[in-house]
TrEMBL record:
A Pfam family assignment: MutS_V
This protein's GO CC annotations: MutSalpha complex
A GO term for molecular function: mismatched DNA binding
Protein name (record): MutS domain V protein
Example GO biological process: mismatch repair
InterPro entries: DNA_mismatch_repair_MutS_C, DNA_mismatch_repair_MutS_clamp, DNA_mismatch_repair_MutS_sf, MutS, P-loop_NTPase
DNA mismatch repair protein MutS clamp domain ranges (all copies): 18-77
Amino acid sequence: MHEIEIKCNTLLKKVCSGITEAIKLENTESHGFHFRVTLKAEKSIRQLGMHILETSKGSGVRFTCVDLDELNREYRKFSSHYEAVQSKFIDMIVETCSGYVPTFCELSEAIAIIDSLVALSVLASGSSSAYVRPQILDEGKQVLELKKCRHPVMEANPNSSQFICNDIVLGSEQGDNTMFLVLTGANMGGKSTYLRCCALSVLLAQMGSFVPCESARFSLIDGIYTR
């Protein structure tokens, strides 16, 4: 196919010798290899006995000749053979690989888990403030105790001001059964950030990550509800 392209370019030089206008060699799906010139050269093309394919103001005159038609037929023949071989090769690859689909799925899952764990470890080790390993208590203890809890995204933003840590304590192992907190404050006072700090720390901990706190201990939590 490359040799045919070389022959087409050689033929282009030959045709150019008989026409003063610049000629371009083009290859389109509808016409294959053909020549193109401006409308001004149409008269010269017809005098040379060339076969006019198309004439328009936008694209000029598209034409061909007997030798170029022959090269086009050869090119289409080789192109069809190439596509047939390529299709057969792809079918062979698909058939071979299809037997390994379960293995690929297991490999993909393993890579995804490793990627997640590495990302969490990079987050914890690369933070400017310490991340700690949370202590997960039994679900029946009903304890939520986060000391100097931080927002992992806000503290990582270099453009934000220094983040103010907060303690979050609900319930205790000494019998305090307080499990409800009414959070009030002025607009833009940090209420939403306070809640998100708590939710994100719990979520990260139950994913298996270290958390952005000075210390963290809480019972298993089965849901985080938002609106």
